[in-house]
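Continued from yesterday's entry.
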Amino acid sequence: MQFRKLAPGILAAAFVISSSAMAAPVKTEAVITKVEGNTITARTMTGPLTVVLTPSTDIAQTSGLASKKTRDTKSLIPGLIFTVDGDLQGQTVTAEHIRFKEKDWRTAVAAKAGTVEQFSELRKAVIEGQEYIIREETAVYFPTGSAVIGATYKQKLREIAEKAPSFGNYRVSILGFADPRGNAAANERLSEKRAKAVSNFLRQTGYIQPGRVLSPSAMGEGTVAPGEAAPTGNDAARRVVVRIVTPKTQLTK
C-alpha cells in the first residue's frame, strides 16, 4: 500500500480546520475566583473555567429587564457572578459577551477582601464613580505613631455603628491615613494598622454585620478621601475616615 506525502501547507491547513472544529459555542454562568490581565479564572457548577478577554469582548452590567450599561474589565472582580458566551475549547472560553447583574456586582464589592491595590480600585468605583451615596461620616484621630483608638472616638464609632442599619442596604468604607513625617512605607503600614483597628472595633460593636464592612484601606500619607478637604496639619492627617454608604439607586432613606 502506498501513502501520499502531504505538503507542509496542506498539513497546516488541516491542523487549522481541525482546531476550529474543536471550538464550540457556549453560554454559561460562573463566578470569578481570580483576574490576571485579560484572563479570568472562574468556576461553574461543573468545574473550573478559564475565560479569555479580547479587545472585542462586550462587557455589560444589567439592571432589570431593559437597562444595560457598558463596563470595562475593572468591573470584573473576584466573587462576581457572571454569564459568558463565546467559543469553548477544552476548559477555556474566548469571550464574545460578558453580562453581570448590578446587584451581584454590589455583593462582590461588599464581600471583597483583597490587596490594598484591589480595594483602592473598588473604592474608586464605589464612591468616586458615584455608585454609592455617603449617608454618615466620622473621623478618628490618632496620636503620633499610634493605632490605639481613644475613648472619645470609640463612642463616636459606636454611635455611627448603631445608626448604620437604619440606612437599609448599607456598606461601611474605612480609609486609614498617616501624617507625612518619617518613612513613607512605614507610614503606609501605620495607616493600615489604624484602619484595621477601626474595622475590628466596628465589627465588635454588634450593630454591624461583618459582611457589610468593606476591607480597610491603607492610604498612607499625603492623600485624602474622595470629596474630603485636605488636612490642615499633622494632627488632622493622622486619621481614619469612616463612611456609611448606600447604593444611589436605593429608595429608602
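--- second protein ---
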Amino acid sequence: MERQFHFISGLPRSGSTLLAAILSQNPRFHAGMSGPMGGAFNTLLGELSDRNEYSVFITDEQRKRMLKGLFDTYYGPEYKAEVVFDTNRSWCTKMRQLKELFPQGKVIACVRHVSWIIDSIEQLVRKNAFQPSSIFNYQTGGTVYSRAEGLANGEGMVGFAYNALKEAFYGDQTDNLLLLSYETLTSDPARAIAAVYDFIGESAYAHDFDNVSYQADEFDLRAGTPGLHTVRKKVEARGRTSVLPPDVFRRFENDVFWLDPALNPHGVRVV
C-alpha cells in the first residue's frame, strides 16, 4: 500500500499530542506523540555523508531512497492507516528534504505563546516535585530562572524548536507549511481540524471533540515527567494564572512573530 506521509512539528507543549489524538479518531489516519523517526533520519543522513569513507559510492539518489525507506520500513504492515502523521520537532529543520522525499507531504507546525509554553513546563516540574525530569537531565537543583534560561537557549527544549520553526517559516519551502495555534485548537477545535483537512487535501471526518483519548503514561513516567503527554477527554480552553514570576513571563510574551502579518513574507497559513 502506498501511504501518504505528513508531519507534525513546531513548539513543545503546543498541542501536537492533542492534534495527533484527534486525528487518530479517523480510521484512515495514524498519528502519535514524538517518535524515533526524526533521530533516525538525522543519524542516517550523517552516516551517508562524507564522514563515511565509502561515501564515494553513494549517490544523492541512493541517499533519497534510503531515507525514504526509513519511513516505509518503520511504518510496516502492522500499521493499517493509509495516511501517517509522524511527529518530531526536528522536521521544521528538514523542509527541503521532506519536500523532495514526499512532494505531497505537509508539515503542520503547532505553535503557542512562548510564555505559556515555559509556564506549562514549569507547572509540570512543580507537580512532579519528587521526580526529576529528563527535560533537565534529571538535575535536582536550579531555580525557575535557570530552568527558563535552559529551556529558551538555542540547545534547549523550547529554544531549539523555536529556532527551527523560524527557519521553516522564513525558508523557501513554505508552500507545504501550516502553523496551527494551540489557542485555536483548544478554543475552536472544529475550525482548527477543518483547516488541517483542507490543507492536506482530505475529506472531512466527524471528529468527537468531547471524547478524545491518548495514553503515553509509561513513556512519561520513564522520562520523570508524568502528565507530559496527557490529553484531556474534552477539548476546551482552560484559563488559569501563570506560575511564572512576572519578569520571566514578560521575557517571552512578545515572541509570537507568526501573529504579525508584516513578519510573514511568504504568506504562510496561520490558523
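The first helix runs from residue 16 to 23. The beta strands are 4-10, 29-31, 83-87, 107-111, 177-181, 269-270. Will compare against the first tomorrow.
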